[in-house]
Amino acid sequence: MVTDPSNNHAPIDDDLRVTLAGTGHLDRNPLWAQTIIYLILIGLGLVTLLPMVNVLAVSLSEGYAITQNPLMLLPHDFTVEAYKYIFGTEVLLKSFGITVYVTVFGTFLNLAFTITGAYGLSKTHIPGYKFLMWLIVVPMLFGAGLIPYYLLLKNLHLLNTLWVLIIPGLVAPFNLILMRNFFWNIPESLEESARLDGASELQVLWKLIIPLSKPVIATVGLFYAVGHWNDFFSGLFFISDNSKWPLQVVMRSIIIDQNMMNMGSGPAQSGDVTRIVVSQQNIKAATIIFAIVPILLVYPFLQKYFVKGIMLGSVKG
Amino acid sequence: MWEARFIYLLIVPTIAYFFIFAYLPFAGLQIAFKDFQIFKGMWESPWVGWKNFEDVFQSAKLPQVTINTITISLYRLLFGFPVPILFALLLNEVRVMWFKRTIQTVTYFPHFLSWVVFSGIVFNLLGPLGIINLLLKNLGFEPINFLTMPEYFRSILVVTGIIKEFGWGAIIYLAALSGLDPQQYEAAKIDGAGKLRQIWHVTLPGIRPMIVLMLILSLGGILDAGFDQVFMMYNGAVMGVGDIIDTYVYRLGLMEAQYEMATVFGLLKGIIGFTLIVTANAIIRRMGEKSLW
Prior knowledge:
Structural class of chain B: mainly alpha
Number of domains of chain B: 1
CATH topology of the largest domain in chain A: MetI-like fold
Shape of chain B: globular
Distance between the termini of chain A: 66 Å
Oligomer: heterodimer
Number of domains of chain A: 2
Low-confidence stretches of chain B: none
CATH architecture of the largest domain in chain A: Orthogonal Bundle
Helix content of chain B: 55-70%
Order of helices and strands of chain B: HHHHHHHHHHHHHH
């Protein structure tokens, strides 16, 4: 029998293919494709990372060195003068204090309202449940706009108070729904047995549901906390008294305004006039880093819980 | 009802909050039809019919800010929408876990920064004293103030917006990718499909529901061109191409105290935005895709 030599190879190829597929080898891209993928990803990583590294380097360099080494990723003529300067500006420190207060206290109130509301609304059997859910979902689709909102806050005498940074965003519908969905997954039998033991609704919530829901509380808490930290909108729109501005609004005026005369004493200068130690670039960079560091400190938690939250939210809207 | 009284007690604060801060503002919409006199208050101010609407429709700002808003949003959709999807597909091919995690850690980070901070980073790059201009100067060229040039402004908005959010935007696609059935890939392989055909016939159909869902949300938000970012980055020189509905409503209402016209703008924006998302959702549902509701 004459066999076609090309046919001869086919069974071997198939066998090989199965073996390789079993070890996952066929899943791999060819080397050139793999190289391109890795290079693109490294490129994307650098595009996000390097501008931030440059800001850090600028914040730690002497003013004149920046103009000579614009692309620096490490500080040239290392100095912390810019940081000394911003830590000496009362406006910035005060706004930092305001934002810390609003973030801590605001997040606490957010969670108190969101947890109780979500727990109540996880009970689908209560009369009027559908109506109550609609009440919460509709504002996600349609709002009255900025001016009616502004006038409401004005009538409530919230304008120009720190409360305006806390109360108007007390419950975010998305977070409420996220938490309610999590509560749904807690077995009803656990609650039933607690109730049989004579626990009240509030005790069930406090002693059973909350301890079991730590992951979702952390997620939602971080959503709120980052929201407060980065909130720019409320301070800009509703607080005209600049002694009550939160960090982001003060930062805006530092980053945008070329003129920083209103920030207290001017930047420190060394004796040599041509050698400016602290330039505006330094101060802006240091301010940016100042606002990034707290986010960076909680970033490991943010990454862990935010991703979880997004996953939970994307599974069930 | 009575058995559920404690449950209601727990819900009351939340519902009261929504009533006050999400529904009471609708009463303020009457300003759109009134001559608002601040000392009389909105209830006592006289009705003027459609006059405020006529003012808005006659204003030259209406076409300008509408066109700017929609153009910027469409650019974002056209160039920005595919980036997280492509990024997720690339990341999905990486088998070296530490590399994948590092790239994720780096690219997710800017999402957590405010536009105030991120704009500061952008200015450090593109501003008059930024890196690029220092480089140009050191090389003997004239500096270019990119942020004051109308021809660059929208591109700067779109590109910096993509850089800030593409990593984060990929998460839901990665989640969808991880849920795909490996057997489908095996089947495709047995049918002789190469890597690209597998992506085309298995991966993309698998994450299509998520892509469609994100598309509805983007279409619904087409009148939101990103207040925070635009407000931080725009300036007098680029007003003609950069002024969007939200920034204009802010200046008109809160800076110039033209409450009536600003309310009309806000109302029109709300109605159109609502119509868009409802329509997008209906079309997608008719196409047999998973919709928002």
